[in-house]
Amino acid sequence: MIFRQLFELVSSTYTYLLGCEHTGQAVLIDPVINAMDRDLQVLQALGLRLACTLDTHIHADHITAALELKKRTGSRIAAPAIDRLPCVDLPVEEGKPVQLGSIALDALHTPGHTDGHFAYRMADRVFTGDALLIDGCGRTDFQNGDAEALYRSVTQKLFTLADETLVYPAHDYSGRHVSSVAQEKVRNPRLGGGKTMEEFKRIMAGLNLAYPKFIDYAVPGNRQCGVCPGHLPEQLQQFCPQMAQSPQG
């Protein structure tokens, strides 16, 4: 398998490129619209053809590149079926692997950050979206978020994977690239160390986080599989212009 971890600076989002060496097909997990040209350049350099994009959930902090990549490459759009987005070509359901050549991703419904959130497991790694971050987790106070649901998703699904499973999150804000199930079970300050559900709920209730600055544009745009608003306030315009390069992990 060909694997690349790509980082988008504005929203601190990781996009994951998985390529099948036998068929030349590739999938991008959580592509970001303003990093689309960068992703296409990486695909070309590796001699891969984008077969589909795969989002973990309806994002509130960036616009997915799914629709624009479909226009440019003919790739199909895969996303959780539970969200019932009319623009999706491949509705994802738990128990039905996403298969591309030699790439097989097991879909795990992991609600809590959003009600339609999915993680994707492949062999020795799991792409956890916002459900489980390195030393953290996604917030649970919008988009039908639910702290109890997130606790169950992490402790009963993600933490039951093999300890050596690599954890690749959708975001990191401290320059970290990868963790493991064992590490998060032990030291995650919100969910690790044997935290009870009541402890987790108190932690999440006490975060007092600011209202997401891009959510009112991102969520409607992502319900259309990635449509950037025509008129953004000046302070938010950085979320949509194309960039060609960014750091890679």
UniProtKB/TrEMBL annotation:
InterPro entries: Metallo-B-lactamas, Mito_Persulfide_Diox, POD-like_MBL-fold, RibonucZ/Hydroxyglut_hydro. It comes from the Bacteria. SMART domains: Lactamase_B. Pfam families: Lactamase_B (PF00753). One of its GO terms (molecular function) is metal ion binding. Residues 12-171 form the Metallo-beta-lactamase domain. GO terms for biological process: glutathione metabolic process; hydrogen sulfide metabolic process. Keywords: Hydrolase, Metal-binding. This is MBL fold metallo-hydrolase. The lineage of its organism: Bacteria, Pseudomonadati, Pseudomonadota, Betaproteobacteria, Burkholderiales.
